[in-house]
Every structure is written in structure tokens, then in C-alpha cells.
């Protein structure tokens, strides 16, 4: 039954509200009057991996940062349109941004563990929520590290500094850090661009496993990676959504010329 | 023609290397100058504690005066216009408690070390250079010098008795009398008469004991054989440096250093110890650190994390860095005018009006001094903290926000810990500056002599409104005491050395803390 569900191809153009993790409606965004995103509308499916591809500077990072309102931190950033998540518009003034960010986890291109112990890194979000019980913290830390496939490597040195971990381990640590908050959506901004192929493969496997737990959006420059791990792929070009469909059809028979040019490597 | 203009004399490389060697030369000169300064302070400061040799010699103070034979201690020797000059301290009949003189070496005859001479230090800090001869007990009988410590014990016993009467009887009577005063009891009331009778009785006993104590005496002889005697109760210690072995001298030096650090100054800050000043300096710096750190950090966090990026912020930033260049005396005047008179005066009228016109807070004191120094060092802390905050990687801040942290939480949990080495650097600089500053302090609370420490057993234990002593003020005072003090080893140099050590130790502490923080929050 589950198997069936997993292989079922949803049409991203006709997703029902239950099947939608995020609905973007006419989203435009400017950085100090320079338009970066232009009238983007799309529905991102639940419990699937959706890849964002596109040329450098086309606005991929900016788009996923809209989903947890990280763009608010950039002065001079303005946006219009709606982003519906869990039945509400998160662009609304009254949105509780801190709570939103616990629901929408984010992993950055370069691993950024805090200069704390491994344990405290994973606890960071929980402590912010006022969770201080030793038992609860221990359990959550273990679960998150297991989910991020890091537990076996660090279980004996949880209280050592996170800075001594390798790059790949650090990236899994920050994934664990996000997972500890049990997010509904996980945003990954080029999570493997700084890692070697083997570690990359490791993290890709990890993503496939995490799909059951949350909806994943990944930005990547690596076509093979997008084709390999993602169920759906969106192609952005100069702030516009050019093409968006299931990965198989997008990579085998793109409808738009720009998409084809990009995936065959005709753009820089 | 232009071949002969000066700019062609050197090639540009030569010019550059000339400039470099010139700056190297200047740097070398500065280092040497600094080294010499340190050498002078260390040598003159440290030799102050070494038991100086006692000499015997004969000299005339002027051509007309009679020759003087005396025990003396040489404080410094130097040459002036070709001839050797000796600056020394001596005791004789005319000046039993010592006098200083500066004579050419040729004017002193028969100068030789005299190991029968002793340096007798009195409890009030004065000294006598003479040969101890014999002791006298209360029964007026002659006793040998060997009984000195035994007799001192007897004297001590009497002193203790006097002290007991003073604290247990007299203070009680004083208190009762002042209670009667408060209740406006008539001068001839029976209670009053009874109390004053008691008072006179105990006072009489004390005088008797004091007379008895004064009968214990030490007879000494000056170099010319003239006798002189001293009450044993007044004598603090007798050091015959000529009879001390090398190790005993070291021992004496260490004891002297110990007493220097733990005792109060005597003889208007020319003898005794510096404990109140050391304590005052450290406490002032400590309180200042407690004030300046939170304010400096908050200001820096505001400037670099919260303030909008506009002209006003730049103006504030520029003024802050320029504040570091304001002469410190200006801060002193500001502290006196604003904190002491304006703020302190208003606190007095609001909360301590029952004590007016005697000021409580409206007078210079430790707290105002610390506050003034905090303002003085604030720019240093702000600038260094901002520097530290700038080093916090954007990625870490973003990581914190992405986990649902608010701005305040990110500042508290991520930014400040990572910036803490930078904050520490600022605090180090602030401490170094504050511990060495004297001029503004003299306006806002540091004094040459303070009767009480700012901390004692009396509620509320920490008296931040009290005036305090400061090592720097002591040095300033010492330098003006006598022109000769700056020429030889003296208490002033010892205090200089101590001040340097205090600054050094405070810095060292802060550097160690910074290193540990760096290690803890290092960026991989
Ligand atoms: N903080 C900012 N202020 C102003 N402009 C910005 C800022 N961040 C990004 N931009 C601009 O927005 C556009 C989109 O940037 P974005 O980072 O989203 O691109 P991207 O698709 O993620 O590129 P890459 O693949 O290189 O990461 C770029 O033109 C960039 O110059
Ligand atoms: Mg990007």
C-alpha cells in the first residue's frame, strides 16, 4: 500500500490541498528595488523531494528563503504575493516567524555548526523552546542523530566540540539540528556542494529516508543529483519559474527550450 | 642640474630602506628607553625592601658647624660635576628620628660599616639609627638586650589590657552618654554623674597602665656615645643589618615586602605599607569593570546588530572612537560636576535629606570614581566588542535564526559567546587604562589618606560612598614629598613597582581568560 503510494505520480499542476506542503501564489520579491523573483506560483507536494535548479543568481536560494522568511533579515528586501503553508499565509504580518522556522527547517550550503558541543548543537532549537528536561533532550538528540545517520559516528563523543567533525559529518549534524525540531518541511540549499562524492551519496540516501517524515525542497547545481534524488523538479530562470514537473519528464523531455538548454549544459 | 637635487642622492629603494632603518632605530630607542625606565623602577623599588648597610662616619653639614659623628644609611650615590656625592640618612642627638643630607664623599671621614648599629623602626613609622645598649623594666632595673622579646611580650600584655578596657568599658559608657544626649537629659542628672564617674575611673586606670608601659624602655647610643631612650611600646622592630647573614637579609626583605603589602601607610605616606591603596585600586578597577562591561557590550551590540545603517549611527560610531582621545582630566571634571554634584547631590536631597547638609552621595567616593573610569574606558570596550561582533560569521547567525531563535536569543546564545574573546580584549584594555589613571581619580574620590577601607564589617559591608586610597595617588604624593625621594630607592618607587605589577597581573588574568574563551569558541 505504502509502496504504491510512493510510486504514485502526482501531477504538480493539479495537487489537492491535502497533497500540498507549500502553495506559492504570485510571489514577487525585490532586493532594494532590484527584482529577483517574478510572479512565481507553484504547489510543492507533501512527502516528496522537490528540486530547484537554475543558473547561478536566478533566485533559487531567495525562493526557498521565502518559505521560512529568512529574507526578512536582509534589509531592503520586499515581497508580494502569498505563501500558503498549513492553511495560512505565512507572508502575513501577524505570522509568528520563530514558530514558522521551527516548522520549516533549513540547511545551508556551507555547514555551520555552532562552536558548541555536538549535543548542544542538536539541542539548540529545543532549548529555545524552553525544553530543558535531561531525559527529553537526550531522547531527541539521539533520535535526530539517528535520523541524520550520524549517531554511530558520534555517540561516544557527544560532548566534544562540533568543530572537530569532518565537513560531511558537520553537514549531517546541521541536518540533525533541524530534524530535532520535527519540522514539516526541510529546505536544503546546495547541501552537498562542499562535499566529496561519497559523502554526497550518503546524504542523498539520507534524504530518501527522510521523505516519510517531511517534505524536502533541495536546491542543487548538480543535474544528476536532481534527477537521482528528486521526485519533482522546478527550473528557475532569472527569477521566473520556467518549468515544473516530475523529474523524470523534466529531464527526459523538457517542454521549454530554456530548460533543455540548461539541462544539456548550454548555459554557463 | 637636477642631478644634484637631493631627491637624486638616494635611489627610491635607498630612500625606502633609509626610512625603514630610521623607524627601526626609533623603535630600538623607544625599547631601550622603556627598558631603562623599567630597570630604574624595578631596581629602586625592589632595593627599598633590602636591609641597607649601616655605616658610621663623621662629617660637617656646613663649614661653620661642628663635626657630627653618626650612624648612617646611604640612600644613593651619584657623581655631580665630577665629584662623588653621597645622599644619606643619619641619626644623632639633634635629629634622633633621622635627618637626610647630601655631601661630597670627601667631606665624610672614617666612613665604615658598623655592625653594632641598628635601624630601629617605631610603630608610627619613624626610624632611629643607633646602637641598642640595654633595656629597663618597669621596676627600673637594667636588663640585658637578650630579654627584648620577653619584655615586648610584657608590654604587649599591658597594651592588650588597655585595649580591653577601651572596647569593653569606655565604648559602652560613650554609647550610654550619647543616648542620654539624645534624650536631652540634664547635665546634672544622676545617671549622667554616675556614668562620668565610671568613665573617669576607667580612664584613670588606662593612664596608670600607660605610665606603667612607658617604664619599659630601650636605651640606645648614637655614634658619638650620646644616650637616648625609647619606650618599648613605641618600637616596632630592631634590625641590625650588619649582623644579618645573606639569607637573613632575604628573609627580612620578604617580611618587609609582606608588611608593605598588608599594612597601612605611616608618616604621611613615606613609611609603612600600601595595603589600603592597593585594595582601593583593585576594588575601583573591579567595580569599574562590573559597570563598563555590560554597558559597553550593550552599546556595541546595539550599534552593530540593531542600529539602522544610517548617518546617525555613523556619527555615533565616530564620536565613540573619538571619545577615547579625550584627555582623562576632562572626564574627572565631568565626573565631579555631573556625577558627584549633580547626580549625587540630587540623590542626597531625595533620599538622605535627613543627613543634610552633610553629603552622603554628593561627595567624591569610590562609586563615582568607578563610574567616571567606566565612562572613560567605555569607548575602548565598545570598539573592541564591535570588532569581536564583526568576526561572528553570518552563517552562524543565519543558522540560529533558522532554528527559530529571535534576534535577542541569537545575540545571547550565539553572537555574544563567539564575540567574547573580543569583549575580553576590550575589558583588558579598559582595565589597563583604568588601573594606571590618576588625575581624574583625584577629583572624584581618590585621596592621599582615607581613614577607613571601603569594605569593613559594618553594614552594608561595601561602602561605595567612601573615599579611597589609590596607588597612583600615593606615587603622586610621594613624588612631591621630597625631591630626594625620586633620586633613590624609596617607598614611591616601591609603589610604582607595585602598580606596574598590579596592571600586569590584571592584564595577565584577562589574557588568560581571553585565551580560554578563544579555545572554547574557536572557529573550525
Ligand atoms: N542580500 C542580498 N542583497 C541584495 N541582493 C541579493 C542579496 N542576496 C542575493 N541577492 C541577489 O539576488 C539574486 C538571486 O540570488 P540567489 O542567492 O537567490 O541566487 P541563487 O539562485 O541561489 O544562486 P546560486 O546558485 O549562486 O546560489 C542575485 O542576483 C543576487 O545578486
Ligand atoms: Mg544560492
UniProtKB/TrEMBL annotation, chain A:
Keywords: ATP-binding, Cell inner membrane, Cell membrane, Hydrolase, Membrane, Nucleotide-binding, Phosphate transport, Translocase, Transport. InterPro entries: AAA+_ATPase, ABC_transporter-like_ATP-bd, ABC_transporter-like_CS, P-loop_NTPase, PstB-like. CDD domains: ABC_PstB_phosphate_transporter (cd03260). Gene3D superfamilies: P-loop containing nucleotide triphosphate hydrolases. One of its GO terms (cellular component) is membrane. Pfam families: ABC_tran. One of its GO terms (molecular function) is ATP binding. It comes from Alteromonas aestuariivivens. This is Phosphate ABC transporter ATP-binding protein. Its EC number is 3.6.3.27. It is an enzyme of class 3 (hydrolase).
From TrEMBL, chain B:
Keywords: Cell membrane, Coiled coil, Membrane, Transmembrane, Transmembrane helix, Transport. The chain crosses the membrane at residues 20-42, 274-303, 323-344, 365-384, 491-512. One of its GO terms (biological process) is phosphate ion transmembrane transport. The keyword Transcription does not apply. One of its GO terms (cellular component) is plasma membrane. InterPro entries: MetI-like, MetI-like_sf, Phosphate_PstA. Gene3D superfamilies: MetI-like. Residues 141-168 form a coiled coil. It is a multi-pass membrane protein. It comes from the Bacteria. Belongs to the binding-protein-dependent transport system permease family. CysTW subfamily. This is Phosphate transport system permease protein PstA.
Amino acid at each position: 500500500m505504502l509502496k504504491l503510494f510512493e510510486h504514485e505520480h502526482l501531477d504538480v499542476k493539479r495537487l489537492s490541498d491535502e497533497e500540498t506542503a507549500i502553495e506559492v501564489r504570485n510571489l514577487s520579491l525585490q532586493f532594494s528595488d532590484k527584482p529577483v523573483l517574478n510572479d512565481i506560483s507553484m504547489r510543492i507536494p507533501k512527502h516528496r523531494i522537490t528540486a530547484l535548479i537554475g543558473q547561478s543568481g536566478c533566485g533559487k536560494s531567495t525562493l526557498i528563503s521565502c518559505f521560512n522568511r529568512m529574507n526578512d533579515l536582509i534589509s531592503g528586501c520586499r515581497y508580494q504575493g502569498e505563501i500558503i503553508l498549513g492553511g495560512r499565509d505565512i507572508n502575513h504580518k501577524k505570522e509568528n516567524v520563530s514558530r514558522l522556522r521551527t516548522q520549516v527547517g533549513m540547511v545551508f550550503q556551507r555547514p555551520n555548526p555552532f562552536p558548541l558541543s555536538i549535543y548542544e548543537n542538536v539541542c539548540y532549537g529545543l532549548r529555545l523552546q524552553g525544553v530543558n528536561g535531561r531525559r527529553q533532550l537526550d531522547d531527541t538528540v539521539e533520535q535526530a542523530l539517528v535520523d541524520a545517520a550520524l549517531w554511530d559516528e558520534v555517540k561516544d563523543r557527544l560532548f566534544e566540540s562540533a568543530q572537530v567533525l569532518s565537513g560531511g559529518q558537520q553537514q549531517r549534524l546541521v541536518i540533525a539540528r533541524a530534524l530535532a525540531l520535527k519540522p514539516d518541511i526541510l529546505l536544503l540549499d546546495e547541501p552537498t556542494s562542499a562535499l566529496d562524492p561519497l559523502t554526497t551519496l550518503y546524504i542523498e540516501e539520507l534524504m530518501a529516508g527522510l521523505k516519510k517524515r517531511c517534505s524536502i525542497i533541495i536546491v542543487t547545481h548538480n543535474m544528476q543529483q536532481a534527477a537521482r534524488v528528486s521526485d519533482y523538479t522546478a527550473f528557475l530562470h532569472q527569477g521566473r519559474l520556467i518549468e515544473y514537473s516530475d523529474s523524470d519528464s523534466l529531464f527526459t523531455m523538457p517542454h521549454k527550450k530554456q530548460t533543455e538548454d540548461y539541462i544539456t549544459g548550454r548555459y554557463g | 642640474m637636477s642631478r644634484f637635487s637631493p631627491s637624486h642622492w638616494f635611489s627610491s629603494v635607498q630612500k625606502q630602506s633609509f626610512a625603514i632603518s630610521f623607524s627601526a632605530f626609533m623603535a630600538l630607542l623607544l625599547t631601550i628607553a622603556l627598558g631603562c625606565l623599567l630597570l630604574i623602577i624595578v631596581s629602586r623599588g625592589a632595593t627599598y625592601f633590602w636591609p641597607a648597610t649601616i655605616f658610621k662616619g663623621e662629617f660637617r653639614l656646613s663649614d661653620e658647624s661642628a663635626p657630627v659623628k653618626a650612624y648612617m644609611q646611604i640612600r644613593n650615590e651619584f657623581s655631580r660635576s665630577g665629584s662623588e656625592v653621597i645622599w644619606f640618612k643619619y641619626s644623632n642627638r639633634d635629629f634622633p628620628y633621622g635627618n637626610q643630607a647630601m655631601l661630597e664623599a670627601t667631606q665624610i671621614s672614617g666612613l665604615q660599616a658598623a655592625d653594632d648599629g641598628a635601624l630601629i623602626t617605631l610603630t608610627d613609622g619613624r626610624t632611629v639609627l643607633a646602637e641598642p645598649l640595654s633595656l629597663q623594666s618597669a621596676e627600673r632595673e637594667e636588663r640585658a638586650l637578650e630579654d627584648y622579646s620577653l619584655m615586648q611580650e610584657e608590654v604587649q600584655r599591658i597594651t592588650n589590657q588597655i585595649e580591653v578596657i577601651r572596647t569593653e568599658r569606655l565604648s559602652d559608657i560613650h554609647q550610654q552618654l550619647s543616648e542620654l544626649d539624645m534624650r536631652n537629659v540634664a547635665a546634672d542628672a544622676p545617671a549622667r554623674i554616675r556614668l562620668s564617674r565610671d568613665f573617669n575611673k576607667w580612664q584613670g586606670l588606662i593612664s596608670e597602665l600607660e605610665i606603667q608601659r612607658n617604664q619599659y624602655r630601650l636605651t640606645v647610643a648614637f655614634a658619638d656615645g650620646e644616650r637616648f631612650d625609647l619606650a618599648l611600646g613605641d618600637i616596632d622592630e630592631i634590625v641590625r643589618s650588619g649582623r644579618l647573614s645573606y639569607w637573613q637579609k632575604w628573609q627580612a626583605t620578604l617580611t618587609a615586602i609582606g608588611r608593605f603589602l598588608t599594612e597601612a601607610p605611616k608618616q604621611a605616606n613615606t613609611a609603612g605599607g600600601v595595603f589600603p591603596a592597593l585594595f582601593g585600586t583593585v576594588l575601583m578597577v573591579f567595580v569599574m569593570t562590573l559597570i563598563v562591561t555590560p554597558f559597553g557590550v550593550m552599546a556595541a551590540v546595539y550599534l552593530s546588530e540593531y542600529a539602522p545603517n544610517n548617518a546617525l549611527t555613523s556619527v555615533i560610531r565616530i564620536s565613540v572612537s573619538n571619545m577615547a582621545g579625550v584627555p582623562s582630566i576632562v572626564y574627572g571634571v565631568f565626573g565631579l560636576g555631573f556625577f558627584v554634584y549633580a547626580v549625587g547631590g540630587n540623590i542626597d536631597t531625595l533620599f538622605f535629606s535627613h543627613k543634610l547638609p552633610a553629603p552622603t552621595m554628593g561627595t567624591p567616593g569610590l562609586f563615582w570614581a568607578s563610574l567616571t573610569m567606566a565612562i572613560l574606558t567605555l569607548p575602548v570596550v565598545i570598539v573592541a566588542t564591535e570588532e569581536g561582533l564583526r568576526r561572528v560569521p553570518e552563517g552562524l547567525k543565519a543558522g540560529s535564526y533558522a532554528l527559530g531563535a529571535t534576534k535577542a536569543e541569537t545575540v545571547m546564545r550565539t553572537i555574544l559567546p563567539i564575540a567574547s574573546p573580543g569583549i575580553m580584549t576590550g575589558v583588558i584594555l579598559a582595565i589597563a587604562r583604568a588601573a594606571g589613571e590618576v588625575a581624574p581619580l583625584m577629583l572624584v574620590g581618590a585621596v592621599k589618606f582615607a581613614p577607613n577601607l571601603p569594605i569593613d564589617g559594618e553594614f552594608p559591608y561595601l561602602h561605595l560612598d567612601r573615599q579611597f586610597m589609590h596607588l597612583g595617588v600615593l606615587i603622586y604624593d610621594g613624588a612631591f614629598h621630597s625631591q630626594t625621594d625620586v633620586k633613590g630607592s624609596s617607598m614611591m618607587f616601591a609603589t610604582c613597582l607595585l602598580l606596574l605589577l598590579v596592571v600586569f597581573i590584571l592584564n595577565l588574568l584577562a589574557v588568560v581568560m581571553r585565551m580560554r574563551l578563544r579555545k572554547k569558541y574557536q572557529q573550525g
